[in-house]
């Protein structure tokens, strides 16, 4: 009898975690590696949020809670959706998990059957396809091209929908590209979805508050209210609030779906960390005056990286609307050889050589479903970004 589940044969470990781990290993060997792989703000959690977590500990709020969130947090989430997105939800329509990843996983585990399809625009966050597969479904990819800002069109979405389509999984601003869909672009997609009432919408809004310049965030159920009854709107406190390690994600949607997700969570983790929940209450209800200055720093870093990468031979880097990633094309580098003699046959080969020869860790584009590209997270210091970009320029200058 085989020990391991056959389901595991369908999935792979997270490439972003693998890159971070490899960079850490090289640093342990004394190498001066600059890691640009992890999607994690370098800002500390704001003091008033940390104080709320400390207060929860000191007041004894350390016991089990309701499976999918304390009432106070659910109320704060409802208020957030009304305040930021003009969406009305009740606490019974809200689910809180240990990070956005668990919320998405719960939704797929609760709804997918063998043969069900989930449409995923590419490039995509590396975990989406594997969570679909773990839930028993089949990912269906729709590629957004560089010349369209990595965004898919309404015609592409319509062509991908079949009778087996159960979900359309949508992420804007995007990980890995930072691309943000405008209201009109999103309305074109929701118009397609209105014609297919069997398709549900799962929207990953984790980078909502990391929207730059003239870009204005919007979410599907806000753009098209007729989709409200078949949309699960997911968000969390990880990115804009610099709370990645606190592990709080949440979603709101139709009550029967939320109840099914609660059942899944009740037999896996039960409640998220109590202390983190109380900190998240403060994050959502308290002051947000730190977001704008943080975004100003992200904009400065984004501009630094985009300008520097576009000066590198063989690289083309578009300007993203949000998040804290860039996703440059390296089509001009494929087929060339590095100064150390490595043939660049793919974006994975490029990223491997860049790490080994230039000591810069990035994530190769194939991991996100669109090649030849790579992803940089610019959620680190200006000095580290400048040094990394200088190394990338030297690396590209050496290609022949």
Automatic annotation (TrEMBL):
InterPro entries: Aminotransferase_I/II_large, AspAT/PAT-like, NHTrfase_class1_PyrdxlP-BS, PyrdxlP-dep_Trfase, PyrdxlP-dep_Trfase_major, PyrdxlP-dep_Trfase_small. CDD domains: AAT_like (cd00609). One of its GO terms (molecular function) is transaminase activity. Keywords: Aminotransferase, Pyridoxal phosphate, Transferase. It catalyses: L-aspartate + 2-oxoglutarate = oxaloacetate + L-glutamate. Its cofactor is pyridoxal 5'-phosphate. The keyword Membrane does not apply. It is an enzyme of class 2 (transferase). Its EC number is 2.6.1.-. Residues 32-392 form the Aminotransferase class I/classII large domain. The keyword Transferase applies. Belongs to the class-I pyridoxal-phosphate-dependent aminotransferase family. This is Aminotransferase. It comes from Loktanella gaetbuli.
């Amino acid at each position: 009898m085989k020990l391991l589940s056959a389901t595991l044969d369908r999935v792979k470990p997270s490439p972003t975690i693998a890159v971070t781990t490899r960079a850490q290993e090289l640093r342990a060997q004394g190498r001066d590696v600059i890691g640009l792989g992890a999607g994690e703000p370098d800002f500390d959690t704001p003091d008033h949020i940390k104080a709320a977590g400390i207060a929860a500990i000191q007041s004894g709020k350390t016991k089990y809670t309701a499976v999918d969130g304390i009432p106070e947090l659910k109320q704060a989430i409802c208020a957030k959706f009304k305040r930021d997105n003009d969406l009305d939800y009740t606490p019974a329509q809200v689910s809180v998990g240990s990070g956005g990843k668990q919320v998405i996983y719960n939704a797929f585990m609760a709804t997918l059957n063998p043969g069900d399809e989930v449409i995923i625009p590419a490039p995509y966050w590396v975990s989406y396809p594997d969570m679909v597969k773990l839930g028993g479904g089949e990912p269906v990819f729709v590629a957004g091209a560089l010349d369209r800002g990595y965004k898919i069109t309404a015609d592409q979405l319509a062509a991908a929908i079949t009778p087996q389509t159960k979900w359309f999984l949508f992420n804007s601003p995007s990980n890995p590209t930072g691309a943000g869909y405008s209201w009109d672009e999103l309305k074109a997609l929701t118009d397609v979805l209105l014609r297919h009432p069997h398709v549900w919408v799962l929207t990953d809004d984790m980078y909502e508050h990391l929207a730059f310049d003239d870009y204005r965030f919007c979410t599907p159920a806000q753009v098209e209210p007729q989709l409200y009854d078949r949309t699960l709107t997911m968000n969390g406190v990880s990115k804009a609030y610099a709370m990645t390690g606190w592990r709080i994600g949440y979603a709101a949607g139709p009550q029967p779906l939320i109840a099914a997700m609660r059942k899944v969570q009740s037999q896996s983790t039960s409640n998220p960390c109590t202390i983190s929940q109380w900190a998240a209450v403060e994050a959502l209800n308290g002051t947000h005056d730190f977001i704008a200055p943080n975004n100003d720093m992200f904009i400065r870093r984004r501009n630094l990286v985009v300008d520097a990468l576009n000066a590198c031979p063989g690289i083309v880097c578009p300007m993203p609307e949000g998040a804290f990633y860039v996703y440059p094309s390296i089509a001009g580098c494929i087929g060339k050889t590095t100064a150390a003699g490595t043939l660049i046959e793919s974006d994975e080969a490029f990223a491997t050589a860049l790490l080994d020869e230039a000591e810069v860790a990035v994530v190769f584009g194939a991991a996100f479903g669109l090649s030849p590209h790579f992803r940089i997270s610019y959620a680190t210091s200006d000095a580290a970004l400048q040094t990394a970009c200088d190394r990338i320029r030297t690396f590209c200058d050496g290609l022949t």
